Amino acid sequence: MLRPKLKPVLAYLVLIVPSSLIILGFLWLLITSFSTRVEGLQSLGWTLNNWRFLWESPFGPQYPSIWAVTLNTLVMSLIMTLIVVVVSSLTGYALSRMKFPGRKGFLSLTLILHAFPSVTLLIPIYFVLLWIAKIPLIGRDVPLLGGFGYNTIGGVALVMVAFQLPFGIWIMKGFFDNISWDMERSALIDGASRFKVWWQIIMPNIKPGIAALSIFSFLTAWNAYLIPLTFTAGRAGKSAVLSLYLQNFISESVMTEWNAVAAVGLFQLVPVVLFFLFTQEALLNIYGGGKKGGV
Amino acid sequence: MKIALEALNKHFGKVKAVDSLDLEIGDGEFVALLGPSGCGKTTTLLMLAGIYKPTSGHICFDDRVVNHLLPKERNIGMVFQSYALYPHMTTFDNIAYPLKLKRVRRKEMKERVQRSADMMGIGDLLDRRPAQLSGGQQQRVALARALVKEPAILLFDEPLSNLDAKLRLRMRGEIKRLQEDLAVTAVYVTHDQVEAMTMASRIAVMNYGVLQTYGAPNQLYDHPDTLFVAGFIGAPPMNFLEMTFKERDDGFYLKSQALEIRILAEQGALAKQDSIPQRVIMGIRPENVSIVAERDGDFKAEVYLIEPLGREDLVTFRFVDEEIRALVSAPFDGRIGETICLKLDKEKAHLFNPETEVSVLRTGNGRSS
User: Fold this and answer.
1) What is the rounded distance in angstroms from the CA atom of residue B27 to the CA atom of residue B185?
2) What DSSP assignment string belongs to B4-37?
3) Beta partners for residue B30, in sequence order
4) Taking the C-alpha atoms of B299, B302, B306 and B311 in order, what is their torsion angle to the nearest 10 degrees?
5) Using the 8-state DSSP alphabet, how is residue A1 labeled?
6) How far is B88 from chain A (nearest CA, A)?
């Protein structure tokens, strides 16, 4: 048997090996983005040239700047997070607390939808978005979002919301399930209406769940690639997001500037890392269940 | 406020949680709903609170049907087993919540919260959160919250079950005293018969959603109507022996393989009137079984188990294939395996019809002795 002192050492070893591989990758990214060329992890000359994209568009002035694209990504991520959290918490509450015909069916259906590979739905969704684009007012020409149809930030957000909702609903239902019925009954007896109970008593107690789901949704949207790629036309067009912007650097006709790719990749990564640093505790909650409260 | 339940039913699908319940609770009375888990007592309480809607029947507060009223329109205070405090609010906000919803003015709210917190002895804990309070303190906050709106009815759902034994005893006394001081009608759900006996002015015993009996604690203890009530109320529980009923020239006898006793003439007469007089179940409480000298005894039995309870010892005896338990004054000086002579206090014996499980002594308004 292992001696007690050896055990943690072994655990660290097992953890260090795979994480060092990942850390190496990030290290390469960092070094490369500030170098003219690299050999392994060794820089062959330092430069800031790769970060030029911050102040001028690398593809020519007719293309949007990185800041416009970042704004696009941010708007899309926030819109998606907002809708997912609001819809999931209302749906989760209803599924956790109310009895209605079709409740079980609905629950298993959402679970199946969650397991469904989104790729298979890309083509039908394309037609749906084309159709939405024809609806006046919301289809096109909404400021900031562009609209909710094809080739708009809103449209991409809408599709992302649809794919994220089953997960969100299940997570929120789990958090609501953890809130005791007695607390809700007590509030009803104290004189609150059903809506007030939800808003004043239940919601404050599932804050960890809301935080976790918001972060999770935001990160999913921020890193999304396939859906923005499919539902936006014109690769660096005005509705592009960061992941697509990054892809512009990799083309078949021109030599790929890996150093620039590294810099843009790092740029996309920075907010995520910052986000993680401040919210990892809440994020862990998503698998840990709700707050136990005063009991 | 008076409460009347008339033919109250609550079905969950095919399950009859509460089955045609009739119950009247007087103004200012303290009534306990007693029964094992799943007997429908909490369902009844939640119907009183307005959380559950009855399937059929009526709930009346002071002769007014309140079936359709929402919980907040019923002017009730409720204390839950889990306390059901709001973890994100301070003690003050917890207690003030009912008043906030009623839009009571800030100054008055402060006074009332302070008053009811002081009454519960938690006046100095108002800025703490529930997680920073002990179980007993949380219970007091829950009580203060129920009292702050000056309810016409107080409902308790096993409020003491989560407390340790010592604290439970103390809170039991406090709740009883509080209810008497405020003279508020109280309904108290519990599965603990000691709690029900000590606190309530009347006890309603329920089983499988059906009301078994309803009466004062002593009445239920001394004259249980059914086999279930006899077995449920009293600790240690009543002994039950299956006997055959015999009438002879010199009186009425109960006979089993190992024992034959003569019972009181009134008891015998009542048993004879019953539909199945041949077989009866005799119930006798452990305190009515005593150890006597050989010539006075009804039968002999072997000591099987001795459980010291402090003031008394609970001794289990075996005879033939039956068991009987006796409460004897401590210390019990017998040894396990020893054969000892026992006597039953026949005046305190209960006789039940084995088919209907109803007391055969019930007819003719209980017993005369």
Assistant:
1) 6
2) EEEEEEEEETTEEEEEEEEEEE-TT-EEEEE-ST
3) B186
4) 30
5) -
6) 7
CA distance B144 to B78: 10
List, in order of start, the domains of chain A with CATH numbers. Answer: 14-47 (no CATH), 58-293 (1.10.3720.10)
- Could you tell me the pLDDT band of residue A113, with boundaries at 50, 70 and 90? confident
A29 neighbors A262 (Cβ within 8 angstroms): yes
> What burial letters (b/e) apply to B43-61, b meaning 16+ CB within 10 Å?
bbbbbbbbbbebeebebeb
Q: Check if the beta carbon of residue B130 is closer than 8 Å to that of residue B86.
A: yes
User: Is the reported ipTM for this assembly greater than 0.95?
Assistant: no
Q: B237: which 2 tokens?
A: 């529980």
Beta strand B185-190 with B153-157 is parallel
Cα–chain center distance at B187: 12
Across chain B, which distance is largest between two alpha carbons, in Å? 81
B301: amino acid identity, one letter: A
Reading the block at residue B338, the tokens are 């020893």
Cis status, amide bond into A143, omega within 30 of 0: no
Interface of A with B (CB under 8 A): 180, 182-183, 185-193, 196, 201, 204-205, 207, 291, 293-295
Cβ-in-10-Å burial (0-12, 13-18, 19+) of B336 comes to exposed
- φ, ψ at A65 (rounded to 5°): -80, 165
Q: Taking a C-beta distance cutoff of 8 angstroms, is the pair A191, B74 a contact?
A: no
Question: What does B86-109 look like in DSSP terms, one character per residue?
Answer: -TTS-HHHHHHHHHHHTT--HHHH
Q: How far apart are CA B49 and CA B43, in angstroms?
A: 10
Name every chain A residue with its beta carbon within 8 A of the beta carbon of B82: 180, 182-183, 295
Using CB atoms, which residue from A188, A201, A291 is nearest to B86? A201
Contact B287, B324 (CB under 8 A): no
DSSP, res A146 = B
Helix (H, G, I), strand (E, B) or coil at B176: helix
- The neighbour count for residue A258, using CB atoms within 10 Å, is 16
- Hey, are the CB atoms on B84 and A293 less than 8 Å from each other? no
3-state SS of chain B: helix, strand, coil percent to 5? 30, 35, 35
Name the β-bridge partners of B314: B307, B327
Of B339, B295, B287, B345, give the one whose Cα is nearest residue B317: B339
Which one-letter amino acid corresponds to residue B4? Answer: A
Which residues have a Cβ under 8 Å from the Cβ of A23 and sit 6 or more positions away? none
Residue B319's SS3 state is: strand
Distance (Å, whole) CA B312 – CA B198: 20
Query: A35-48: per-residue pLDDT in tens?
Result: 888 888 888 888 88
Which residue in chain A is spatially nearest to B52 when comparing CA positions? A185
Alpha-carbon dihedral sign for residues B119, B29, B285, B190? negative
Residue B251 bridge partners (DSSP): B248
> What tens digit of pLDDT does each residue of B160-213 get?
988 888 888 888 999 999 999 989 999 999 998 889 999 999 999 999 999 988
